[in-house]
Amino acid sequence: MAINISSASGKPVKAYIWNEDKNQKVVDCLFNPTEYSFTKQNTWQRNDVVGRDLPVVNFQGGGAMTLTVTLLFDTYTQPAGADGMPRDVREYTEKVLDLMKIDPTLKDANSQTGRPPRVSFRWGNTWSFKSVITSITQRFTLFLPDGRPVRATLEVTFQQVEQEGTYPRQNPTSYAEVQKFRLVGPGETIDTIAFQEYGDPTQWRRIADYNRLDNPLRLRAGQKLAIPPLA
Questions:
Q1: Does residue 2 belong to any structural domain of this protein?
Q2: pTM (two decimals)
Q3: Which residues pair with 155 in a beta bridge?
Q4: I need a labelling partner for 175 at 20 to 30 A (CA). Which of 39, 45, 92, 154 fits?
Q5: 166 dihedral zone (left: phi>0; alpha: psi -120 to 50; beta)
């Protein structure tokens, strides 16, 4: 199971889903995802031209990015309910499913009728994908003798509603305070970056804390880091 580490406390950081319209947390993920994927498509119009081997293509527009993630909810190993048995896993999964239901207090900009809420998938303090949920596939895989489900997976697809990219900005207040930045290169690790910047690989935590990295051991190529001064 993948673990996301908080550089400040050293404790696992739970991913969670946030209701952007209500400004409140919906549900914590009992287990962090082991992987997630982004998809983006652009629309190009093809115009065939007589006498040419290739058509002329004209750009029509960019499509919204989608995030697909599989979430595991398992109450079998969680504290028991009032009856001494594992809690029904639907106590968690229904909270996610409800985010696809129409909320009459929210108004669609065009039709002025109710709509489902805007949400964000968040992991730690700096990872956020503002979106709407377009699809959920729910699968129950473990049951108690009375048929109560205690383990489920949700495959959730989020569609982007705000331009952030796959690597959202990290700690913008830090960026205002420092003058030096660098992009992570392929295969680079945080200790090697610390050695290159400070001549001391043990200073990696200074970079991790300053950028509020959730998992400093898993940098991504192209990720932007603020390099704080030693003084």
A1: no
A2: 0.65
A3: 70, 137
A4: 39
A5: alpha
